[in-house]
Write a structure and sequence with these properties.
The protein has 3 helices and 2 strands, in the order ββααα. It is mainly alpha-helical and about 110 residues long. The chain has a domain of about 50 residues. A two-stranded antiparallel sheet has the order 1-2. The longest helix has 25 residues. It binds zinc ion (2 copies). The site of one zinc ion has 8 residues, from helix 1.
């Protein structure tokens, strides 16, 4: 009987509101697909896209990958073409070549 009146909190900012989900302020904000936070648009480089915090994490990962790929590319000279708009595409397209090269390297070390 002593229960407080039913209310929901915005899952983003904790503001108490009537409908479930996000409050009216947060529902208009762009959502980062990675961390699921709703953030003001100045927290994004591009909308839709990851927030800057997630972007920075991504870039760090990419830099590491890039270094490894550069070593392989330097030896094999993987061809790039216009469809290589992202690293993922480049890797998918060249995955077999890269795997072969890695295989040879592993065999050579034995
Ligand atoms: Zn909110
Ligand atoms: Zn994020």
């Amino acid at each position: 009987m002593d229960q407080p009146p039913p209310h929901e909190e915005c899952t983003n900012c904790g503001l108490i509101m009537v409908n479930s989900g996000f409050c009216r302020r947060c529902v208009t904000l762009p959502q980062c697909p990675v961390c699921k936070r709703r953030l003001p648009s100045n927290a994004f480089d591009a909308v839709p896209g990851n927030c800057q915090a997630c972007d920075r994490k991504n870039r760090k990962k990419l830099q590491k990958t890039r270094h490894a790929i550069d070593n392989i590319v330097a030896e094999v000279n993987l061809p790039t073409d216009d469809t290589d708009t992202t690293y993922e595409r480049f890797i998918t397209r060249n995955a077999l070549d890269i795997l072969e090269v890695m295989d040879e390297h592993i065999k050579m070390k034995k």
